[in-house]
Structure formats: structure tokens, C-alpha cells
Amino acid sequence: MKIMQVTGQVGQAETTSTEALVLTHCEGEGLAGQDAALIDRALGGSLRKLAQSKEFEGKANEVLLYHTQGKVPAKRLVLVGLGKKNEVTLETIRQALGSAVKCVRRTKADSFTVTLPSVMPAGMSSVEVAQAMVEGAILGSYQFTVYRTTAASEHTVAGMTFLISGKDQLRQVTEGIRRGVATAEATVFVRDLCNHPANVLTPAKVASEAKAVAKAERISITILEQKDMERLGMGALLGVARGSQEPPKFIVLEYNGAKKKDERPVVLVGKTITFDTGGISLKPAENMEHMKADMTGGAEVLASIRAAARLKLPLRLISILPVAENMPGGRAIKPGDIVTTLSGKTVEVQNTDAEGRLILADGLAYAMRYKPAALIDIATLTGACVVALGQFAIGMFGTDPSLKEQIRKSGQKAGERVWEMPLWEEYFEQLKSDVADMRNIGGRGGGMITAALFLSKFVGDCPWVHLDIASTDWSERERAYVPKGPTAIGTRLLVQYLIDRSL
Fold it and tell me: Based on the number of CB atoms within 10 Å of its own CB, is 314 exposed (0-12), middle (13-18) or buried (19 or more)?
């Protein structure tokens, strides 16, 4: 998908010529803001009458299209609701722009203009509000049409312009645009990767995408092939890949924008299973096609390092992608098999569908070589996460209170919220094996917790957070700026965390 061009300029809404002008309103507030009031005056009070008749009330994500008939330079007005004034957040603004851009697209307009909301969320700057608006607009216009040969794709909105009243605010909005485009672009990149079928997005194709990302300034790449993994002793990753004809890859990208040469890095590790059949412990056929998106975590850490380079963040960042396909076959790993991980710990594989934690075990152990200042893994790890949290929260576990709080705040700002779950040692009783150091499943009870506890055995004492995105990575219906299908939720959380860490 081609990314919308976003610019900012000083100007007044009532005198600006544009195909569509987007104005935000709060519920019960009438025509709050000078822009709406001046335009309403030029329209002979038409907007006020719409509000009084409750044809448009300003409820969250409510949208109304108004043709101006040449009475003002803007051809159309798109009124979009923010909900109640005291409940306006970055997320309600983000959703409002996602809803508004769909309306603009239906008019076949090529571009639109928007002003900052008259009601700003408490404690938030113009930088953060502009960033949220850009994210909502770009992500709300997302389409994936690569494989359609007969159906015409929907109209594409190519441009968005912010109207700003003064030059001082323009500087803030310009920075917000820069951040918003980078985070939205990263999310689009992940959605595209997750939408490609597994016969296209193989481990080799993931490596090719990573090489393309590594062409950016200050990014280097190392790709370990199967023989390299055998030499190092990555028995867990190799075990998962045994049943597939597609050779595994172990991809390491390094971005160095740090001012200090010896700065300890942030390390991101993403589960990258390009298709998950469950292996010998075969999944049910229903919805198995969703398993093309079992590489969401890896796509997100790949997109995050690309965004960090494009934003020129002053930090050192490493993204690690253990990549494999989990298939049944004559050589596939079997329930009861024992693998030796890169760390030297042994694992009895009691369920081959608990493969994500196996490849992450080797990924996390490799990450420890960098002595991370912060280590974050992200994965579509457990069905138990879906049961526990539904579709609106990412499961979070961790060993460092400060890092967990940073992730929580960044997630809140990004609209990709986390909910902390316990990482108590008592749960490890469920992972004890009679024949190895541990087993890879702990039974039905507390499945999300035992999976996270399994991972904790491979991270040493460095600050670590595990994010389980199995609950949020796929949506069964379209929402304001979230499409049906792969959502890429988790991407903006990671990028926002990197931005916040850099400030």
C-alpha cells in the first residue's frame, strides 16, 4: 500500500480550498472551536441546525458528510465525533480520523484537510495529538489488494494536510507528522507481511525482506543458516523446523544511532513462524488459515528497527527473528522428543503446537550475548491469552518493574494497551519433566502464564518483558482504523516505546 502524503501549513479553515475539510466535535458541545463557528456563519447556520436537530451529535466515531455548495472554499465538510469532552484521549482522536478517512475515501476525493481538535486530551501536546491523527488516517485507509485480479480496488486517498494557525504550533505538528507517518508506515508494513499467504512469505522471503530493511543507514544484518544453527546448538529452533521443506533462518539486525559507542542495546525478539499447522500435534482445520499470521511478532520487530532508522532515534537497537515453518512430516519433531536449546537447557516436547516458545528460547538465549539494557519479546504465543483477555489487551509479563511501567505507558499512548499477568515461580511445577530440565507445556490451567514462565528461564537477570499478542493480532471485523484480518497490533507500541526511550 502506498503511504498517504501528510503535510502541515499555516492557514484558516474558512478560507482554505480543499476537496474535503475534516472537523472534529465533542458530544453535547455544539460547534466548539473557532474554525467550525466561522464556517457555520458562512453556511448560514446550517451546521448549528444539524447539531440542534441531533442529526449530528458528536458521538464517538459518528460521521456526517456535508456538501457546501460553493458557500466556502472547501467542497465538502466531514464532521466526526470525539465523544464526551471529558473522555477525549489520543485513542478517541485516532479512531475519529480512521472513521473520517473512510468517509473521505467514499467521496472519491484525492486529498483532505484537517484542523487540530478544539478539545485536546489532558497532558498531551500538539506533537502527540498530530501523531495520533496521522496514524488514524493512514491506518484507517489501509487496503490489501495484491492478489485481486478482477475486483477493482477502492479509491485511495493520497494526501492529508494539517491547517495550523501559527508557526510555533506548526513546528510541533511537523514533528508529530514525522512520528505518525513512521509508526503508521511500520504498521502497514506488518499488515502487508501478515496478509501474504505462507506459500509466498516463506522463511527465505522473510530473510529477503530483512535484507531490504538492512539497506537503510546504520542498519547491519546477519543471517544464520541451518548449518550455522547446528554449529551453535540451536536445537529448539531446528527441532521445530524439521518437518518442513523450508529451511529455517535466524535473522539479526543491528541499528546503531547511539551517541555512545559502548551503549547497551535494546533487544527485540519476535516469534516468526511463517505457518503453523501445529506439527504432529495438528491443529483443527477451522481457521487454520489465520496461522499465516503466526509470524506477526517477527514482522513487528523488523518494522520497529526500520522505523527507528527512519526516525534516526539516538539509541542502539537489535531485532532478532528466529524463522521457521511448523509442519508435520516424516522428519517432524514428535511428542516426547527432547531438544537441547542454545542455552544448554533440555526440553521435553510434549506438544509440537507449543512451538513458539521453543524458537523464542533460542532467540532469547542468543539475545543475552548482547547484554541488553532491555529485552522485549513479542509473540502470538498462546490461545490461553485469547481466553483470558479477549481481543482488546496484550498480555504482559516481565521481571523489571521499571521496564514494565515504560511499556504500559507507551502502550496507553499508542492505543495498544497491555495488561500485566503474574510471573510466579509456583507455576513452574506444571512445567517439570520426568526426563528433561522442563517440558514445553504445563496443562490447560494458566496456559499463558506457564508459557511466559518457560521463556523466563532463558533471559538471565537482564530487564525483560514478554508480550503475548495472540489476543490482538487478528480481528474478525473492521473497526475505526483496524481492518478485518491481521491488525499488526503491537507494532506501534514497540515504536512508541523506542521513541519515548529516546526523548
Answer: middle
Beta bridge partners of 397: 466
* Cβ burial, residue 227 (10 Å; 0-12/13-18/19+): exposed
Per-residue b or e along 97-120, where b marks 16 or more CB atoms closer than 10 Å to that residue's CB = bbbbbbbbbebebebbbbbbbbbe
pLDDT of 1 above 80: no
pLDDT in tens, 298-339: 999 999 999 999 999 999 999 999 999 999 999 999 999 999
Cβ burial, residue 150 (10 Å; 0-12/13-18/19+): exposed
pLDDT band at 151 (very low <50, low <70, confident <90, very high): low
Instruction: Give ranges for CATH 3.40.220.10 in the chain.
Output: 5-191
What is the signed CA dihedral for 199, 201, 207, 209, rounded to 10 degrees? 140
**pLDDT at residue 30, rounded to an integer:** 67
* Residue 27 identity (one-letter amino acid): E
What would the 3-class secondary structure string for 115-131 be? ECCCCCCCCCCHHHHHH
Using alpha carbons only, give the angle 31, 35, 38 rounded to the nearest 5 degrees: 80
* Contact indicator for 187, 491 with CB cutoff of 8 Å: yes
Angstrom distance (rounded) from CA 495 to CA 319: 12
pLDDT exceeds cutoff 80 at 17: yes
What stretch of H or E contains 82? strand 76-84
Residue 174: CB atoms within 10 Å: 17
Distance between alpha carbon 86 and the CA centroid of its chain, in Å? 27
484, three cell numbers = 478485518
pLDDT of residue 44 exceeding 80, the answer is yes
**Contact by Cβ (8 Å): 301, 319:** yes
Class of domain 210-502: alpha beta
pLDDT at 29 over 90: no
Integer Cα distance of 470 and 477 in angstroms:
16
Helix, strand or coil, per DSSP, at residue 397 = strand
Superfamily for domain range 5-191: Leucine Aminopeptidase, subunit E, domain 1 (3.40.220.10)
- Name beta bridge partners: 224: 250
Active site residues: 283, 357
CA 161 to chain centre: 24
DSSP type of residue 225: -
Question: pTM above 0.85?
Answer: yes
CATH 3.40.630.10 maps onto the chain at 210-502
